[in-house]
C-alpha cells in the first residue's frame, strides 16, 4: 500500500472532516500535526506551496490539498462506505450542499471574531444560512446523505466540534430544538455516530483554545 499521510491541525474543522472520512473508510494513515498558525513545517509548505494551508493528504508522495477535493479523492480511491451517491443527480446535489456549507461559514467565524453590531449582523446572516441548509439541504432526512453519513454531513460536522464551543465562549446558541428542530436532531444523530464520537477533539480543550482566540480578537478590535 502506498504511504498515506495527513497534515492537519487539531482544532481545525477542515482537517477534522478528512479524519472522519478516513475513519469511516477504515483507511490507515499517518497523522502529522502542524504547529499553526506561525510555525508551518517545511513539508507543509513543500506539499501545498499555493495556499500553504492544512489539510494536505499525501498519497504515495503525491499531495492533494483543499478539504473538499481531498474528500472526493478519498471517496474515489477507497469506494467502500461511499461518501457520494452513485446516481448522477443525487451526487450533484450532495456536492452542491457540501460546497454551499463550505462557502458560507464566513458569518459563523464572524459571530466569534466580531463584537457589538458587527457580531449581531453575523448572527442574523448565519441564522439565515442555517435556515436554508435545514429547509432545502437536510429537509426531513436523518443525514444529508439519507440514512448514512455523506460528504455534506462531514462538511457540516464543524457545528458539533467548533460552533458548539464557540457558542459557549460567546454565550449565544444557534441550533436549538425550537429554532432549528431538524438540524438539532441532525446534531444528535451525527454526534452519536461511533466514528464521529470517537474522533472529536476534547471539548474542554477546544473551549480553552477558543477563549484565548476570543481575547485576541477583542484586543485587536480595541487597538484598531
Could you give a short description of this structure?
The chain is α+β, with helices and mostly antiparallel strands. It is 59% helix and 8% strand. Helix 1 (13-25) links the parallel strand 1 (4-8) and strand 2 (30-33).
Layout of strands and helices, then pairs:
Blueprint: E1 4-8, H1 13-25, E2 30-33, H2 42-47, E3 56-59, E4 62-65, H3 67-77, H4 88-103, H5 106-113, H6 116-138, H7 151-156, H8 158-170, H9 181-192, H10 194-197, H11 203-223
Parallel strand pairs: 1-2
Antiparallel strand pairs: 1-3, 3-4
Helix pairs in contact: 1-3, 5-6, 8-11
Order of helices and strands: EHEHEEHHHHHHHHH
Largest sheet: 4 strands, mixed
Number of helices: 11
In total, the number of strands is 4
- Measured as a percent range, the helix fraction is 55-70%
Q: Helix/strand-derived class?
A: alpha+beta
Percent of residues in β-strands:
5-15%
Mean pLDDT over all positions: 96
Number of spatially distinct domains:
2
Reported by name, the CATH topology of the largest domain is: Glutathione S-transferase Yfyf (Class Pi), Chain A, domain 2
> Spatial order of the strands in the main sheet?
2-1-3-4
CATH class of the largest domain: Mainly Alpha
What would you report as the Rg, rounded to the nearest angstrom? 18 Å
Principal-axes shape call: globular
Low-confidence stretches: none
First-last Cα distance: 52 Å
Q: Any idea what the CATH architecture of the largest domain is?
A: Up-down Bundle
